[in-house]
Write a structure and sequence with these properties.
A hairpin with a 7-residue loop joins strand 3 and strand 4. The chain has six helices and six strands, in the order E-H-E-H-H-H-E-E-H-E-E-H. The chain is of the alpha+beta class and 154 residues long. It folds into two domains: 52 residues, no CATH class; 84 residues, Aspartate Aminotransferase, domain 1 (Alpha-Beta Complex), CATH 3.90.1150. The relative contact order is 0.11.
């Protein structure tokens, strides 16, 4: 079994450090890979992450706050999508809400229309099998246009 974590998704996107928890044998194999040196973050970022993780209650507080903000923004975004004719499933976790567009609407066409209105929507073929899926990223700190984004994309 392998568990993968990242401070960039949970704490701050500028703290580009991740970790792998697994068996000692697999850790040894991963460390022996010459490419791992290219992926190693600078020592300062490693020390910051170690300090953060060493403070169990502090990290738990950060995670609880982050989860609450993301959950509220996910629910807000989903509410803004109601009435657009698109369907979606609320994710159990993660930073993405996948839209299932009407069959006549291709996600690439939606992305083109959205770009003309100053929005970035990632069409499904980049991350999903169906061409009628589009990816909306859930933001924990929405900008002033966040309320209008889903409807502006149409």
């Amino acid at each position: 079994m392998i568990q993968i974590g990242s401070a960039a998704k949970t704490v701050w996107s500028g703290l580009r450090i991740g970790w792998i928890r697994t068996t000692a044998d697999l850790v040894g194999s991963l460390c022996a890979n010459p490419l791992q040196a290219l992926l190693s973050p600078p020592p300062l970022e490693q020390l910051i992450a170690c300090q953060l993780l060493a403070d169990d209650s502090g990290f738990a507080d950060v995670l609880a706050d982050r989860r609450a903000r993301l959950r509220a923004q996910r629910d807000h975004l989903a509410h803004r999508l109601d009435g657009t004719g698109w369907t979606y499933e609320l994710p159990h976790g993660g930073l993405t809400l996948w839209l299932h567009l009407r069959t006549a609407t291709r996600a690439a066409d939606l992305a083109t229309r959205a770009a003309a209105r100053g929005l970035v929507v990632i069409p499904g073929p980049h991350f999903a099998v169906r061409r009628t899926d589009a990816k909306f990223t859930v933001s924990s700190q929405p900008g002033p246009d966040y309320n209008r984004c889903p409807r502006r994309a149409v």
